[in-house]
Amino acid sequence: MPEIEFTLDTSNGELLMHIAGIAGPSCEDVARVVKDLAGTPAVEELTAEYRLRPRVRSATRSQIQPGRA
Asked: Residue 18 contacts by C-beta under 8 Å, 6 or more apart in sequence?
């Protein structure tokens, strides 16, 4: 399940955000919404989870019907 964690450093007012549960570039869509609301971050780091790509399996199935050529 996707999760966004916010941490506010009260000593300097810095807002930290960590997005988890969204692999690959889809994470950028979520981060863009947060940036629009909270502002542009001073530092942005990509996690190992970001570099994961969803696996898509394609399957084809042929079916020959009797009596048709």
From this structure: 4, 5, 7
Question: pLDDT tens digits, residue range 31-63?
Answer: 888 889 888 777 788 887 777 766 666 777 777
Q: Please give the single-letter amino acid code of residue 38.
A: A
CB 2 within 8 A of CB 10: no
The dihedral through the CA atoms of 35, 37, 42, 48 has a sign that is: negative
Residues 23 and 31: their CA atoms lie apart, in Å, by 12
Residue type, 47: T
pTM for the whole structure: 0.57
Closest CA to 27 of 8, 56, 62, 54: 54
Q: How far is residue 9's CA from residue 15's CA, in Å, rounded to a whole number?
A: 6
Return the DSSP state at 21: S
